[in-house]
């Protein structure tokens, strides 16, 4: 296991037990069996470590949901969306609980900007799904529906995260599909507009440029051993520099990297860039 990954896994155990504030760097290094110097080679501070954990957690959820929504047909996409949301929260329940408890405390601006960024990505995925499913019928209310869907996600997440309610993800997804369809079909009075949404924060995030993606890929390639995933990343990097491949080949290369534990986020970024 890479030292950085070890630190993140062991720190998460301590954070889940004690909270962010009560956990010291010394406690983290002790449980990892490393020196403080080794810790600071991987992370400049405990805050940077916390932000790295947030990135890891949110990137996994965001990329998985985007993939499921993109690859599900219209009849099943809403069920698949809710199913993946709650499966992901269940899988990462320790960190989900920690984040939901701790975010009510004061965090620095970097944390707030980061969470807003991931929130915008989720808004974009939900909006695309709503437009795809309901079309012109919800043109006036689609931004309200984004908040309704996110509200259902939040309320039901806290229900099973903090109350030890037995979780049948399939039944939960089914009932939320029904509720969402009812809201889409019978809501007529709009409250949230695109302009109002943008007053809550920055306008919806722009996609990364090709040069920014190349920088991310270069960093990842340096960390990886020789493998089909590394070879696929190299070819995708070349496609960003000089496009020559067909869409089907690009999609296949992205599929090659998608299930690699450290490449899901890059796969998400590349799918959005290449529109596949």
From TrEMBL:
<feature type="DNA-binding region" description="H-T-H motif">
    <location>
        <begin position="24"/>
        <end position="43"/>
    </location>
</feature>
<dbReference type="InterPro" id="IPR001647">
    <property type="entry name" value="HTH_TetR"/>
</dbReference>
<dbReference type="Pfam" id="PF00440">
    <property type="entry name" value="TetR_N"/>
</dbReference>
<feature type="domain" description="HTH tetR-type">
    <location>
        <begin position="1"/>
        <end position="61"/>
    </location>
</feature>
<dbReference type="InterPro" id="IPR050624">
    <property type="entry name" value="HTH-type_Tx_Regulator"/>
</dbReference>
<protein>
    <submittedName>
        <fullName>AcrR family transcriptional regulator</fullName>
    </submittedName>
</protein>
<dbReference type="InterPro" id="IPR009057">
    <property type="entry name" value="Homeodomain-like_sf"/>
</dbReference>
<keyword id="KW-0678">Repressor</keyword>
<keyword id="KW-0238">DNA-binding</keyword>
<dbReference type="GO" id="GO:0003677">
    <property type="term" value="F:DNA binding"/>
</dbReference>
């Amino acid at each position: 296991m890479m030292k950085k990954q070890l630190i993140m896994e062991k720190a998460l155990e301590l954070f889940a037990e004690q909270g962010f504030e009560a956990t010291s760097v010394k406690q983290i290094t002790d449980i990892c069996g490393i020196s403080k110097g080794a810790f600071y080679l991987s992370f400049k501070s405990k805050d940077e470590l916390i932000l790295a954990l947030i990135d890891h957690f949110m990137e996994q959820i965001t990329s998985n949901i985007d993939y499921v929504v993109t690859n599900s047909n219209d009849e099943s996409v809403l069920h698949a969306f809710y199913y993946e949301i709650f499966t992901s929260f269940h899988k990462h329940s320790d960190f989900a609980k920690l984040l939901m408890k701790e975010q009510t405390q004061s965090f620095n601006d970097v944390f707030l900007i980061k969470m807003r960024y991931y929130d915008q990505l989720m808004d974009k995925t939900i909006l695309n799904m709503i437009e795809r499913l309901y079309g012109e019928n919800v043109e006036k209310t689609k931004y309200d529906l984004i908040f309704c869907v996110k509200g259902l996600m939040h309320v039901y997440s806290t229900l099973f995260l903090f109350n030890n309610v037995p979780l049948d993800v399939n039944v939960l997804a089914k009932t939320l599909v029904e509720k969402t369809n009812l809201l889409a079909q019978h809501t007529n009075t709009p409250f949230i507009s695109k302009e109002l949404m943008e007053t809550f924060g920055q306008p919806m995030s722009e996609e990364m440029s090709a040069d920014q993606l190349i920088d991310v890929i270069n960093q990842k390639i340096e960390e990886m051993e020789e493998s089909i995933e590394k070879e696929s990343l190299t070819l995708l990097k070349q496609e960003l520099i000089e496009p020559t491949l067909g869409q089907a080949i690009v999609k296949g290369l992205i599929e090659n990297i998608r299930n690699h534990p450290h490449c899901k986020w890059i796969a998400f970024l590349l799918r959005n860039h290449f529109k596949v």
